Amino acid sequence: MNELDEYTANRFGRKLPPENDDESFLAHWQEWLMCESPSDILNNHIARKHPVKFSDPESITAEIYASFAGRIPLVIFGQDSDFEAFIVNLIYHGERPDNIPQMGASFIYGRTQRFLALSRKYYSNTPPEYVGLTPEEWRGKSMIIRREHELTHYYTKRYYGTASNNLHDELIADFMGMYEAFGHYDARLFRHFMGIDGLHEGRFSLYTSGLAPETREAAAEIARVCSDSLGAWQDSESFVNMDRASRIDYLCGLGIQGMMQRAKHYGNV
């Protein structure tokens, strides 16, 4: 219970004032985008220590994206192999980790540099047949989910000082991503993405690594209950009257325990 309580503790505290955040990194990107191709930007300025030999550099796009969380450089890789090679070289210093095929995005956040790197992979390695879409349709939806998921992490990092790979963060980020992609949140699909529906190996093991087996089992049940709670919340009047940032603020403050309490209110537990 101590381990579970620690894992589900709310790590989001007081919201930080936006003036504390330095956006000077955008000036560098604006200059680079005027003079260089996206692949050259990555090799000349981002991954200088371990430049990448891209297989399809022309399919890489880059822009400064104006999001609800603020402006941030967005790099999209047309080839999965180029995305993986870039992540391996930039983050893992050329040493390829075993889980790289499961990675579809990376959120780089530093004091002087930050950007989002996105692949065009199917979200959470879910095939299009499962969501009832064509491959092209599902890649488009996957891109929206992935982009908005990472922008949610960017928002919490900017305004709360934290963005972690744990259940609370992922509940919020997947909720926001799916709602923007489909116009509604699907709790069943969230459970599939996590791999807690027993149908495929999802992302849940990444977020519970190091926990005791009984703690992971309890956390999985909590994830099921919270996903149903969020599914019911999206139909409430309070949800409809909130903008995107306010929805994230509310879920940050609510915490996992608050989601569980809401589930009791909705009769889901």
Brief synopsis:
With 269 residues, the protein is of the alpha+beta class. The chain has helices at residues 2-8, 25-35, 38-46, 80-91, 128-131, 135-160, 167-182, 187-194, 204-207, 213-233, 237-240, 244-266; strands at residues 61-67, 70-76, 105-109, 114-118.
Describe it.
It is a single chain. Strand 3 and strand 4 form a beta hairpin. This protein has two domains: 1-13 and 126-269, no CATH class; 17-121, no CATH class. The two termini are 19 Å apart. The protein is built from twelve helices and four strands; from the N terminus they run αααββαββαααααααα. It is of the alpha+beta class. A four-stranded mixed beta sheet has the order 1-2-4-3, sandwiched between helices. The mean pLDDT is 92.
| Subunit arrangement of the protein | single chain
Low-pLDDT parts are none
Shape: globular
Strand order of the largest sheet: 1-2-4-3
Strand segment tally: 4
Q: Helices and strands, in N-to-C order?
A: HHHEEHEEHHHHHHHH
Kindly name the structural category.
alpha+beta
